[in-house]
Design brief:
- The chain has 14 helices and 13 strands.
- With 305 residues, it is an alpha/beta fold.
- It has 3 domains: 106 residues, 3-Layer(aba) Sandwich (Rossmann fold), CATH 3.40.50; 84 residues, Rossmann fold (3-Layer(aba) Sandwich), CATH 3.40.50; 79 residues, NadA-like (Rossmann fold), CATH 3.40.50.
- Strand 1, helix 2 and strand 2 form a beta-alpha-beta unit.
- It binds 1,3-dihydroxyacetonephosphate and iron/sulfur cluster (SF4).
Length: 305
């Protein structure tokens, strides 16, 4: 049996030999982060996908991330490391539902969170990630905007860009939206000196009680740039672990035990090993027309964000 270190060494050798760029979302396990070409949030991964020079890209994250890579690099072979790793929020709305919303609300632009299907993106004017949402919406010329599918991120954007008229729909992350104000009160009472850092997918009342609201990378960068010693982390609990590795002398506490994304946790180091050997994962193939329209919405994000 190979040890973790031996597997990682094999992966590093094979990805080089087989011309594979490994993109890893920050919610993945630490042992996968260690073999990445790039680690980041959804916005950072989209940017890297566009400029990666390798012929093959392996995405360790969830399906919409691999689809985004394929849209931005249609000539590359894109593999999703674990075929079942999906984002449940991305399944809440589809293209047909957006067409109906547009019919009912003529004159509105539609902005889609990147955690959505290609079919949905193809119906939208712009995509956003949690890191780029405020900037993209602020820079759009439209005043009337329907924001799908995450009502919590949409509500955060609306609070930051008050001159826009933002319509929300009923959708959101099943993991982040579970966090309650009672958990905030409890965590604050247990750790009175800690700063509370929260992802905008959390409910409005939770986000409003935070010291900082930001994307996965935003939260990690906040810790890197500040000298406080204690933090309560209001995003996927893998980030608590990664920050503890990076800053062993500081203290990190999870805001809630509910902050576990089962889909993000599906991918293992063995999955990555099998993929770089050429016998695992799923190759992402997209309908060409859908892909072209969806890419336009992503390009708007990369231009305005
Ligand atoms: P980030 O854009 O912060 O990486 O968020 C992606 C995600 O799925 C958060 O739940
Ligand atoms: Fe989707 Fe939430 Fe998991 Fe992110 S944490 S991938 S939004 S279910």
């Amino acid at each position: 049996m190979k040890t973790t270190r031996q597997l990682q060494e094999e992966i590093l050798r094979l990805k080089k030999e087989n011309d594979i760029c490994v993109l890893v979302h920050a919610y993945q396990n630490h042992e996968i982060l260690e073999i990445a070409d790039y680690i980041g949030d959804s916005f950072g991964l989209s940017e890297k996908a566009k400029i990666a020079t390798q012929k093959n890209i392996l995405m360790c994250g969830v399906r919409f991330m691999a689809e985004t890579v394929k849209m931005l690099s249609p000539d590359k072979k894109v593999i999703l490391a674990h075929p079942d790793a999906d984002c449940p929020m991305a399944r809440q709305y589809d293209g047909q539902m957006i067409r109906k919303l547009k019919e009912e609300n003529p004159g509105y632009a539609v902005v889609a969170y990147i955690n959505s299907t290609a079919d949905l993106k193809a119906e939208c004017d712009a995509c956003v990630t949690s890191a780029s949402a405020v900037e993209v919406v602020r820079n759009m010329k439209n005043k009337d905007i329907i924001f799908v599918p995450d009502c919590n991120l949409g509500s955060y954007v609306a609070s930051q860009v008050p001159d826009k008229n933002i319509m929300l729909v009923n959708g959101g992350c099943p993991c982040h939206s579970k966090v309650t104000v009672e958990e905030v009160i409890k965590a604050r009472a247990s750790h009175p000196n800690a700063k509370l850092l929260v992802h905008p997918e959390c409910k409005k009342e939770v986000s409003e009680s935070a010291d900082y609201i930001g994307s996965t990378t935003g939260i990690m960068d906040y810790v890197r740039k500040n000298s406080y010693n204690e933090y309560i982390i209001g995003t996927e609990n893998s980030i608590v672990e990664h920050l503890q590795y990076e800053f062993p002398d500081k203290k990190f506490y999870p805001l809630s035990k509910e902050l576990v994304c089962t889909d993000m946790r599906l991918t293992t180091l063995v999955d990555v090993y099998n993929c770089v050997k050429g016998c695992g994962g799923e190759e992402i193939l997209l309908d060409e027309t859908t892909s072209v329209y969806a890419k336009k919405a992503i390009d708007v994000m990369l231009k305005l964000g």
